[in-house]
Amino acid sequence: MFSTEFLDLPPLASAGGTVTLPGSKSISNRVLLLAALSGGTTTVHDLLDSDDTRVMLDALQALGCGVRRNGAQVQIDGLDGRLGVPGAKLFLGNAGTAMRPLTAALAVLGGDFELSGVPRMHERPIGDLVDALRQLGCRIDYLGNEGYPPLRLGRPALALDAPIRVRGDVSSQFLTALLMALPLAAMHGSPATGTGASSPPPEGAPRDIVIEVVGELISKPYIEITLKLLARFGIDVQREGWQRFTIPAGARYRSPGRIHVEADASSASYFIALGALAARTSGSNGLKIQGVGADSIQGDIRFIDAARLMGAQVTGGPNWLEVSRGAWPLKAIDLDCNHIPDAAMTLAVMALYADGTSTLRNIASWRVKETDRLAAMAAELRKLGATVEEGADFLRVTPPASVSHWKAAAVHTYDDHRVAMCFSLAAFNPAGLPVRVLDPKCVGKTFPDYFEALFSVTAPQPDAVPVLCIDGPTASGKGTLAAAVAERLGYHLLDSGALYRLSGLAARRAGLEPEATHADAIAALARKLPVRFTADHRVLLAGEDVTDLIRSEQAGMDASRVSALPAVRTALVALQHSCRTLPGLVADGRDMGTVIFPGARLKVYLTASAAHRAERRHKQLISKGFSTTMESLRADLEARDARDSSRSVAPLKPAQDALLLDNSDLTVDQSVDLVLSWWQDKQPFGAVPHD
Ligand SMILES: Nc1ncnc2c1ncn2[C@@H]1O[C@H](COP(=O)(O)OP(=O)(O)O)[C@@H](O)[C@H]1O
Ligand SMILES: Nc1ccn([C@@H]2O[C@H](COP(=O)(O)OP(=O)(O)O)[C@@H](O)[C@H]2O)c(=O)n1
């Protein structure tokens, strides 16, 4: 996951290959709650690992459920309708799929619970659910604003004789919450008085429980998911149209033992759109999406129909889809999107590539999601150059009038995963502009590795992957600076010195003195270096961890000597070029800006006085347990400077267009901030990274 302040997406050109999607958020959290309410143990396969599911798992654990994780598999020891650790205070982040069903289940069960979340959660209405629950005798108090979390739940005196009425026109999550909670009452009958949290509700006469929906029910497909999952857990709800739902008397949750979570159909929408709007990467067979098929139980899968209307070609099987570009430009649409509220956001971005004005209707529910999505989408689409009309419940998008009307935008994401994922698709703009996504980690809500998945199936426009070079003499702080800058930008890091150090080590191990007579043999070793850089910054040579070994002064000297051999330098070129991958690269060395990446967008030539460098290296080596003296170090580094600067091939010198930075009197943080400000100046997003 990218946890950077922003992520710059270079202009993208094509898509191809296979992407495997994470499990659905809606299904994951419903399954977790149902497993918790059932008796026995449920093994959940392919559970989504995200902020919202973690929130739910933590809450269930706090309520006394056994939770065991084993990769994408989780075992839940259910409590057979007897959930409840009295006095539990549950923090539910911004997870509506946890807040609503838990409110209902805990309010029906009774106990002293407090449910709260992040500030945005306290702006998301819950009054209609609370009204419905109060109607049936639940005791619920608002701890903040009337109609919104946080909530305190007390002990109910359930009255289930009359049908329970719930509004269906604000969010279908209210009805889902009631459908999942009320079998608790049907299971035990309706107690006349409140029940203790830790003791089972007393038995009464089991009776049918009826829910009536007031107003037109929105997001019906989500209710279908709820009903299908309830059936898997032994509860067969009878439905009359979308107005009346009956939970039969004596209904009882039964664990299915094991259950698989489908991949998220809303997440699939970004890749369906990608296949529809990107050219096919040469040599690939189009874009395959693994984990969800056209017969999915999730309503958002109907996004396929909308994408087809816009021109996408979609085929598929039970657990996969294949998408490619059909009509191009895409065809403008005018569509009622009530049945695909989440995925419809993706259509708004596809509309940027359409042949006219598109209108998305009946999407008022966007206003009460993670953010006011109608306002958010309108504002961010406008930043890209689109003309947008925002109505109470519709959005009308006209693409930029011509290529030159597209604008490079820093997209604000409002802590809303879907806004971030949608706008990544703007990187296919015909103007070849990059797109900045602010706060990219918000995708953690449902799809933590979204951007990694996107990069794995997309190809950039030629030469579009940005490179930032940092060259300079030994111990000037290149490695430190490069690593910090790469981390702040979310870019890959090329420590080219390590490649020369590894080549020197490989030569030594092969019994070759690092000198000209062995140049070809060492070059042959360098060309096939069995090197691997791990995510935790270790360097492996043929599987052996040599991270510390290659940092000795001896290894540095050997590196300097092999690096003077032209054949070795040539042998390492392809490996260095192969590191330039999405979303970008920070390259550290001696000739990054002069030879390897001459077209790099920013080149920094980093120096510090010999005295400062010797002192820094001394501290560094002593802290790693190597014994050395300042005098020998200074002599070594001056010898290395001389050799690096005087060699015939790729001598150490600043590139003509490099910016010089003498950091003798700067701290590491000051150097990092300065280089990032230079980088920022090269971007088309304006001076400040925020809007
Ligand atoms: N601006 C700086 N001020 C003080 N010390 C620094 C600075 N930059 C780097 N250092 C320290 O100097 C040492 C050598 O830095 P390193 O990044 O390994 O240099 P290089 O890659 O250029 O050989 C490290 O211990 C590092 O923490
Ligand atoms: N791009 C590069 C990187 C390193 N090198 C050589 O490899 C040696 C080790 O590189 P390094 O960056 O790890 O060295 P230090 O700067 O840390 O001493 C240097 O002394 C250079 O001679 C090079 O020639 N070209």
From TrEMBL:
PROSITE patterns, sorted: EPSP_SYNTHASE_1, EPSP_SYNTHASE_2
Residue ranges constituting the Enolpyruvate transferase domain according to the UniProt record: 17-187, 210-454
UniProt-listed SUPFAM superfamilies: EPT/RTPC-like (SSF55205), P-loop containing nucleoside triphosphate hydrolases (SSF52540)
Binding positions (3-phosphoshikimate): 25-26, 30, 171-173, 219, 342, 369
EC number in record: 2.5.1.19, 2.7.4.25
One GO MF term: ATP binding
Reactions this protein catalyses: CMP + ATP = CDP + ADP; 3-phosphoshikimate + phosphoenolpyruvate = 5-O-(1-carboxyvinyl)-3-phosphoshikimate + phosphate; dCMP + ATP = dCDP + ADP
UniProt entry tagged with the keyword Transferase: yes
Localization: Cytoplasm
One cellular component (GO) term of this entry: cytoplasm
InterPro entries in the cross-refs: Cytidylate_kin, Cytidylate_kinase_dom, Enolpyruvate_Tfrase_dom, Enolpyruvate_Tfrase_sf, EPSP_synthase, EPSP_synthase_CS, P-loop_NTPase, RNA3'P_cycl/enolpyr_Trfase_a/b
Keywords of this entry: Amino-acid biosynthesis, Aromatic amino acid biosynthesis, ATP-binding, Cytoplasm, Kinase, Nucleotide-binding, Transferase
NCBIfam families noted in UniProt: aroA, cmk, PRK11860.1
Identification of the protein by name: Multifunctional fusion protein
Organism: Variovorax terrae
Lineage, top ranks: Bacteria, Pseudomonadati, Pseudomonadota, Betaproteobacteria, Burkholderiales
Encoding gene (name): aroA
